[in-house]
Design brief:
- With 236 residues, the protein is α/β, with parallel strands linked by helices.
- The protein has a single domain, classed as 3-Layer(aba) Sandwich (Rossmann fold).
- 29% of the residues lie in helices and 20% in strands.
- It has helices at 9-24, 41-51, 77-87, 108-114, 155-164, 177-181, 196-204; strands spanning 2-6, 30-34, 60-63, 66-70, 97-98, 120-123, 146-149, 168-174, 186-190, 222-227.
- The strands form 2 sheets. Strands 1-10-9-6-2-3-5 form a 7-stranded parallel sheet, with helices on one face. The chain has a 3-stranded antiparallel sheet with strand order 4-8-7.
- The protein is globular and about 45 Å long.
- 38% of the residues are buried.
- Residues 21-217 form the Glucosamine/galactosamine-6-phosphate isomerase domain.
- It comes from Breznakia pachnodae.
- GO terms for molecular function: isomerase activity.
- Keywords: Carbohydrate metabolism, Isomerase.
- InterPro entries: Glc/Gal-6P_isomerase, GlcN6P_deaminase-like, Glucosamine6P_isomerase, Glucosamine6P_isomerase_CS, NagB/RpiA_transferase-like.
């Protein structure tokens, strides 16, 4: 594991963008899976300056690693966020975007294999230790891409309903630990003091499904990028 501790969120975003770009400059096909949400927001702004209207990045393909369908919406929560933050601003062609959704998840791992495998997956970490859609109470380390069922009234349904202001629909689909660990490189990034406790548990505690992201340290090519607040409780 390579640990990079940066001074602040801006530097963390700059380093993360550099890691992504370093893969993209290959003269061969490159397959990337990048997170949505608030943590990568600045990174995507940086990437836009390098990527928008640049045809020499037509070799790069993108795979969303989870999805939450929204009632009455064409795209789920993840794809909607990626479209707004990244795909549209960076003028990524539709044919280079390979959408994971509840209708195709059963064949998605085989598709990734047929496409040459993932060169890099960039993930964040939740305060409960989840990564992608791998939640503590549902995760099995042997899972490939799978579904997490949600029923109206359960805590995950209520949480998402409050978050997005609309009803989530059906099941969440997500890369399982086995899919993530099959990538050639895994990058985990986090910022803020509120992530310090879970970062310490994930990186220095036991590998356990109680902290799903703890399994990531088993990957032989893991890079962890933190600001100093997120790293503040690490012993090393």
């Amino acid at each position: 594991m390579k640990l990079i501790i940066t001074s602040d969120y801006e530097e963390m975003s700059q380093i993360s963008a550099q890691l992504v770009l370093s893969k993209m400059y290959s003269d061969k096909r490159v397959n990337l899976s990048l997170t949505a949400g608030s943590t990568p927001a600045r990174m995507y702004e940086i990437l836009k300056d390098f990527m928008a209207d640049r045809p020499y990045f037509d070799n790069v393909h993108f795979y969303n690693f989870d999805e939450i369908s929204i009632e009455g919406e064409q795209y789920g929560l993840t794809m909607r966020s990626l479209n707004e933050q990244f795909y549209h601003p960076c003028t990524i062609k539709k044919e280079n975007i390979h959408e994971l959704n509840p209708t195709n998840y059963e064949n998605y791992d085989q598709k990734i294999t047929d496409d040459g495998g993932l060169d890099l997956i960039l993930v964040g970490i939740g305060a409960d230790g989840h990564f992608c859609g791998n939640l503590p109470e549902y995760t099995k380390f042997e899972n490939e891409t799978y579904t997490v069922m949600m029923e109206e009234g359960d805590k995950n349904f209520k949480l998402l309903h409050e978050l997005i202001g609309k009803k989530p629909e059906g099941a969440t689909v997500t890369f399982g630990p086995r899919t993530v660990l099959s990538a050639k490189q895994v990058v985990l990034f986090a910022n803020g003091e509120h992530k310090a406790d879970i970062i310490q548990k994930a990186l220095e505690g036991p590998v356990t499904t109680d902290v799903p992201s703890s399994v990531l340290k088993l990957h032989p090519n893991l890079v962890v990028v933190l600001d100093k607040e997120a790293a503040s409780k690490l012993s090393k």
